[in-house]
Specification:
Blueprint: H1 3-13, H2 18-29, E1 33-36, H3 41-52, E2 58-62, H4 69-82, E3 86-89, H5 95-102, H6 106-109, H7 111-127, E4 132-134, E5 151-153, E6 160-162, H8 170-179
Parallel strand pairs: 1-2, 1-4, 2-3, 4-6
Antiparallel strand pairs: 5-6
Iron/sulfur cluster (SF4) binds next to helix 7.
């Protein structure tokens, strides 16, 4: 696809119905098209649209092995609700194998490296062979996402990135979820607006930025899936050191098999 064609599509689809962006992508890229689903509210909007409109888009999740139990339960609930499979894409190493090589609880000492091993590398493998991938990123989530377009070139050569709800607000997302009775993570009602891996996610208090609960106490705001490759540095001399363990406490590998 040419740069002109992509820019034209982005202009036409901007601000429109996300289903139109998904159908645009299906027409051009299916079956080499997939949604990366983290089971966050935004991704659940897209799963709902894909499921209800029977769109031929593969859905996968990056199963780090340290999701909350509630997230694993939601995974099963989503599959049952929409009659589709959410494929689990897993890292090369189990939590115990990673601990043996890099030391226990790598996320407390080197979260960038941990995210690289458990998310970025598996995502790169999952995207191999695809023409385009769909994400639930919104522009107002983080500074890094502020310039996202509805359709754009991914930083990986030859890949298109489709962000159907880039222009949506937080309220747009939740209005859709309530309206269509979409299953969501019960932790959202317990102070967790943004939910990632259990060791790196903590609740937030009223008025706090929703993403403050991710990697609390760290400068880290992204897992690296939607930004350029981050310098990793050696384990123990960290790019995103976290001074204190995140809720729900010091996780061990046994907690999250
Ligand atoms: S969010 Fe935390 S546990 Fe999950 S991959 Fe990143 S550093 Fe590791």
């Amino acid at each position: 696809m040419t740069d002109e064609g992509l820019a034209g599509a982005a202009a036409v689809l901007e601000g429109g119905d996300p289903v139109a962006a998904l159908e645009w992508a299906v027409a051009r890229f299916a079956p080499r098209l997939a949604l990366a689903c983290s089971f966050g509210p935004e991704d659940l909007v897209l799963v709902d649209l894909i499921g209800r409109h029977r769109l031929p888009i593969d859905v996968f999740t990056l199963d780090t092995g340290v999701f909350f139990p509630e997230t694993y339960a939601l995974w099963r609930q989503v599959e049952a609700t929409y009659g589709l499979q959410v494929r689990g894409v897993r890292p090369a190493q189990s939590i115990d194998e990673q601990a043996a090589e890099h030391g226990p609880a790598l996320w407390t000492r080197a979260p960038d490296r941990c995210c690289h091993l458990r998310k970025v590398v598996p995502l790169t493998a999952a995207l191999e062979g695809l023409a385009a991938w769909v994400t639930g990123i919104r522009r107002d989530q983080t500074p890094e996402r502020a310039s996202a377009r509805v359709v754009e070139r991914d930083r990986r050569p030859g890949l298109i990135k489709v962000n159907p709800i880039a222009h949506w607000s937080h309220d747009d997302v939740w209005a859709h979820l309530y309206l269509h009775d979409v299953p969501t993570n019960p932790l959202h009602q317990q102070g967790y607006p943004s939910i990632g891996c259990a060791p790196c996610t903590s609740p937030v208090v009223a008025g706090e930025d929703p993403r403050n609960g991710r990697w609390r106490g760290s400068v880290k705001t992204e897992c690296g899936l939607h930004v350029g490759d981050e310098p990793l540095g050696p384990v123990g001399a960290l790019t995103s050191a976290r001074p204190e363990p995140a809720e729900p406490g010091e996780a061990t590998s046994k907690d999250f098999r």
